[in-house]
Write a structure and sequence with these properties.
The protein has about 120 residues and is an alpha/beta fold. The protein contains five helices and five strands; from the N terminus they run E-H-E-H-E-H-E-H-E-H. Strand 1, helix 1 and strand 2 form a beta-alpha-beta unit.
């Protein structure tokens, strides 16, 4: 499975990329900006996009919504990562079209499990 990672914090981006690889997937891009992530997703057509909710350029929620409205990317899986863990935060993420929502801080094992779970439903 091909995965695009977007988080404006370098440490988190590196950690997520490592977890994605440990889950048996390939990282096609690791970016720090939402607008760049959207452009890369349209160009790369990944199976899964892991997005931080708070990023410059465009938020993860905005990127997720844009991915869902574009027929070329509507089928990709989206995992949102966020420091916001309230029921309202979760509801906003799912309303934007996310397949899953993982609050920060998360464990590497938890992230690997989430990526693997999303991989099961990803297109071949």
């Amino acid at each position: 499975m091909r995965v695009l990672v977007a988080d404006d914090e370098e440490d988190i981006r590196l950690l997520v990329s490592l977890a994605v690889r440990k889950a048996g997937c390939t990282v096609v891009a690791a970016l720090d900006d939402g607008a760049q992530a959207l452009a890369a997703a349209r160009a790369e057509r990944p199976d899964l996009v892991v997005l931080d909710v708070s990023m410059p350029g465009a938020t993860g929620l905005e990127v997720c919504s844009a991915l869902r409205t574009d027929p070329a990317t509507a089928g990709c899986r989206v995992l949102l990562l966020s420091a916001g863990a309230s029921p309202d935060d979760l509801a906003r993420g799912l309303a934007a079209g996310a397949d899953a929502y993982l609050p920060k801080p998360f464990t590497v094992a938890g992230l690997i499990a989430q990526v693997r779970a999303l991989a099961v439903g990803a297109p071949a």
